[in-house]
Amino acid sequence: MDRLYRNQIVFPGIPNYGDLAYSVAALQLGLRRQIANNFLLIARSNLLARDFGPQKMGKPERQVYSGHSLTVAYDFLTGPVEFSALFSEKSKGIQTYVSIGFSF
What we know:
The chain has 104 residues and is an all-beta fold. It is built from no helices and 5 strands. The chain has strands at residues 24-36, 39-50, 64-75, 80-88, 93-100. The chain has a 5-stranded antiparallel β-sheet with strand order 1-2-3-4-5, with no helix packed on it. The two termini are 18 Å apart.
């Protein structure tokens, strides 16, 4: 189980707690399409701007990142099962994530 912290931003391709910033703004666009009975295909793209306040001492890091995810989901009677492939410029690689949920 993932722990949630106050003011946490979920971003594809960056692990939880993988980046700390003083100021963050994120934008997410997504498309969700039912491809068969109980099967869903979900595509998401994100932009993240970080540390847009006063600059700190030293060389500043890149301030804008993009991230993308493609998810295949199946909705069981007990809840959804999702398999995601994630990519971001910061991680520079493809990561996978499996989520199992419960319907309430």
